[in-house]
Structure formats: structure tokens, C-alpha cells
UniProtKB/TrEMBL annotation:
One of the protein's GO biological processes: L-tryptophan biosynthetic process
UniProt keyword annotation of Flavoprotein present: no
Protein name, as recorded: indole-3-glycerol-phosphate synthase
Alphabetically ordered keywords of this record: Amino-acid biosynthesis, Aromatic amino acid biosynthesis, Decarboxylase, Lyase, Tryptophan biosynthesis
Record InterPro entries: Aldolase_TIM, Indole-3-glycerol_P_synth, Indole-3-glycerol_P_synth_dom, RibuloseP-bd_barrel
Catalytic EC class: lyase
Entry's Gene Ontology molecular function annotations: indole-3-glycerol-phosphate synthase activity; phosphoribosylanthranilate isomerase activity
Pfam families associated with the record: IGPS
Domain Indole-3-glycerol phosphate synthase, first and last residues per copy: 32-252
Transmembrane segments annotated in the record for this chain: none
Catalytic reaction(s) noted: 1-(2-carboxyphenylamino)-1-deoxy-D-ribulose 5-phosphate + H(+) = (1S,2R)-1-C-(indol-3-yl)glycerol 3-phosphate + CO2 + H2O
Pathway where this protein functions: Amino-acid biosynthesis; L-tryptophan biosynthesis; L-tryptophan from chorismate: step 4/5
Known EC number: 4.1.1.48
Length: 254
């Protein structure tokens, strides 16, 4: 049940094909109990998923940081969930980061990686994630099958789209937590009107689940376009660039 990644363009394709080449199943530890990702995002007001992101293809090296320290600062600053990068080559993440953050904070954790094999879902659950990211641009028509496997494992899924076609696939697959990425993961270009546009379209198509806007947010006024439409926003780079993560988060959401 692996997607065909041969025609996935740009940076996204390079990262995904590398991750696919590395998947080698091994015995997984007993999964810990974890809090609900969805329930956390549905609390009143715009929820923030704060991302621990040491580096990225678009920003380069962002911050040398202990992921546990960053997650604790995010928790103090009011984050409702923490996204932990586990992709090692372009983001400097690891499953050990996820495990250590799980042991340090009570918030629900999102495994942020490029899931291209069902085994990566079992890893996410075993190392303490409440949810894993499923990128429709990678999984395509397999999105529904990966969603089913996640549910079987007791893992929630943030199903991420960037285009109208990907939105249709996500809705067809039965996504309950829908992420709309302002960033084109192939070209790295960011357009902040993407999330509101596709968020409105999702609601017009009858989607009543959780809506998450992702990427490119740095200032509170940029979040105004999300109010009344989105339940949550995922923010990484602008927080990680701030001298004080807790303060930056408080300023962002007030
Ligand atoms: O961030 C990148 O450069 C990137 C490149 C290729 C694939 C994915 C990438 N980022 C993943 C994300 O979407 C972001 O980490 C997340 O939405 C937070 O975005 P930001 O607040 O702009 O760091």
C-alpha cells in the first residue's frame, strides 16, 4: 500500500522518495496513552498547533533548540497541540524528539513527517503522537486507505491539501481533520489566500469537521482571515525565529 512517488514534483518529491527508501519495519514499543488531538483543536477560540522546526528547505537552519524546551515553552504560551518534525535530512527531526516531547508535555502531538508507508503510522502511535500528517499530494487516491489504517491504530490524522483537487480527494476519503497548506510543497511558494479560499470551499461542499490553516503565519492580523472559519492554525518558522517562544505565541494569539 505504497503511493507512486515517481511523478511528485520538486522538493516534496525529493523528500518523500528519500523517506520511502528508508522505511524498514522493526518491532515497535507499546504505544503510550495520548490525549485527543481533535478535542484539543475544538476548544473555544482559534487553537494554535505550535511546531518544533529546527530547519527547513525554505528557511534553512532556523534555530538550534532542544525540542523538549521548545515544546514546554509552547505549552506555557498557550499552544493546544505541538507539531514535532521527525524528518531528519531537511528538517533535523527524529522519532526520538517525538518520544522525548511526549514524556515532557501533556499536549497532543502531531507527527510531522512525509508518510509514504503504513509502518510510519505505527511508529507515530508508538512514539507518542496523537495524530500523524497525511499529505494528499503524496498519497493521492490512497489517502482513504491510510486514514483507515490510522484509525485502526488508534491514531488521528491531519489530512493536508493545497489544491481544489486535493480537497476533493480529502473529502471523499472522509477526513475529519483537514489541513489547508498555504505553502506549495513543490515550489515552496506561500500564498496566504489559499487557506481561506479552500476553507470556504470545504464548508460549501458540506464539510463540518475540523479545519486547520497551515504555513506562513507570523503576525496576529494575518489570523483575522481565519476567524469564524478555521478551528486551528499551524505555525512553525515565525515562532522558532523568535527569541522567546512563549512570548511570541502569546503575542500571536493574544
Ligand atoms: O517548511 C518548508 O520549507 C517545507 C518544505 C517542503 C515540505 C514541507 C515544508 N514545511 C512543512 C509545513 O507545511 C510547515 O512546516 C508548517 O505548515 C508550518 O509552516 P511555517 O509556519 O511557515 O513554518
Amino acid at each position: 500500500m505504497r503511493p507512486d512517488l515517481s511523478r511528485v514534483p520538486g522538493v516534496l518529491g525529493e523528500i518523500a522518495r528519500k523517506r520511502a527508501s528508508e522505511v524498514a519495519p522493526y518491532p515497535l514499543p507499546e504505544p503510550p496513552s495520548v490525549p485527543s488531538f481533535k478535542e484539543a483543536l475544538l476548544r473555544p477560540g482559534l487553537s494554535v498547533i505550535a511546531e518544533v522546526k529546527k530547519q527547513s528547505p525554505s528557511a534553512g537552519v532556523i534555530r538550534e533548540v532542544d525540542p523538549v524546551e521548545a515544546a514546554l515553552a509552547y505549552a506555557r504560551g498557550g499552544a493546544r497541540a505541538v507539531s514535532v518534525l521527525t524528518e531528519p535530512h531537511r528538517f533535523g527531526g527524529s522519532l526520538m524528539d517525538l518520544k522525548r516531547v511526549r514524556e515532557a508535555v501533556d499536549l497532543p502531538l502531531l507527527r510531522k513527517d512525509f508518510v509514504v508507508d503504513p509502518f510510519m503510522l505505527g511508529e507515530a502511535r508508538a512514539f507518542g503522537a496523537s495524530a500523524a500528517l497525511l499529505i494528499v499530494a503524496l498519497l493521492g487516491e490512497l489517502t482513504g486507505a491510510y486514514l483507515e489504517e490510522a484509525r485502526r491504530l488508534g491514531l488521528e490524522a491531519l489530512v493536508e491539501v493545497h489544491t481544489e483537487r486535493e480537497l476533493e480527494i480529502a473529502l471523499e476519503a472522509g477526513a475529519e481533520i483537514l489541513g489547508i497548506n498555504n505553502r506549495d510543497l513543490a515550489t515552496l511558494q506561500i500564498h496566504l489566500e489559499t487557506a481561506p479560499r479552500l476553507g470556504r470551499l470545504a464548508r460549501e461542499r458540506g464539510y463540518s469537521g475540523v479545519l486547520v490553516a497551515e504555513s506562513g503565519y507570523a503576525r496576529r492580523e494575518e489570523l483575522k482571515a481565519l476567524e469564524g472559519l478555521f478551528d486551528a492554525v499551524l505555525v512553525g518558522t515565525s515562532l522558532m525565529r523568535s527569541p522567546n517562544l512563549e512570548e511570541a505565541l502569546r503575542q500571536l494569539v493574544g
